[in-house]
Design brief:
This protein has one domain: Sufe protein. Chain: A (Alpha-Beta Complex). It has three helices and three strands, in the order E-E-E-H-H-H. The protein has a three-stranded antiparallel sheet with strand order 1-2-3.
């Protein structure tokens, strides 16, 4: 299992914890610290079991109000970092 904590930028959440399977291709867990609690819990539930590529294809570039990013967009950055870690371990 690949597990990282990612510090997002430009959003309300303060930390994104992501877990991927051993191959680094499937999301097995996700949680946010801070941000819109109910919405981020829902996002976390929805993406568990999904391929990382599908999650990033759907969520990358999503914005929040006038911000150029969002917690969902920052989640994609966290998934990128987790996949990079998986490649170095693997």
């Amino acid at each position: 299992m690949i597990s990282i904590d990612y510090t997002p930028h430009g959003v309300c959440s303060r930390n994104i914890h992501v877990e991927l399977d051993d191959t680094g291709t499937t999301v097995t867990g996700c949680s946010f610290t801070g941000g819109c609690n109910g919405n981020l819990k829902a996002v976390s539930k929805l993406i568990c079991g999904m391929p990382v590529d599908e999650v990033t294809a759907r969520l990358r570039g999503n914005t929040c109000g006038p911000r150029p990013t969002s917690c969902a967009d920052q989640l994609c950055c966290a998934l990128d970092a987790a996949q990079a870690q998986a490649k170095t371990q693997g």
